[in-house]
Amino acid sequence: MGVIEIEVDPLPCKACGRLLEQRRWWTPRRFCGNWHRLKYRVRQFFGFVLSVLLS
Fold first, then answer.
1. Rounded to an integer, what distance in angstroms lies between the CA atom of residue 21 and that of residue 40?
2. pTM of the complete model
3. Burial annotation 19-42 (CB, 10 A radius, 16+ → b, else e)
């Protein structure tokens, strides 16, 4: 039996925009590393707080 090969297009990192190689099609990578994940979450949190305060 042969191996099924699925090509997945690279996705950009949500923090810096660098294209990431996708090794698994069932769990795509969204961030370069843990620091970019944390940076994205902190920015998301402060954006939410700012939107609540300004509305």
1. 19
2. 0.74
3. eeeeeeeeeeeebbeeebeebbee
Which amino acid is located at 39 in the chain? K
Contact between 18 and 33 (Cβ < 8 Å): no
Mean pLDDT by 10-residue block, N- to C-terminus, for the chain (55 residues)? 77 94 89 96 96 92
Hey, which bits of the chain come out as E strands?
11-12, 19-20
Determine contact, residues 31/18, Cβ cutoff 8 Å: no
Which amino acid belongs to residue 42?
V
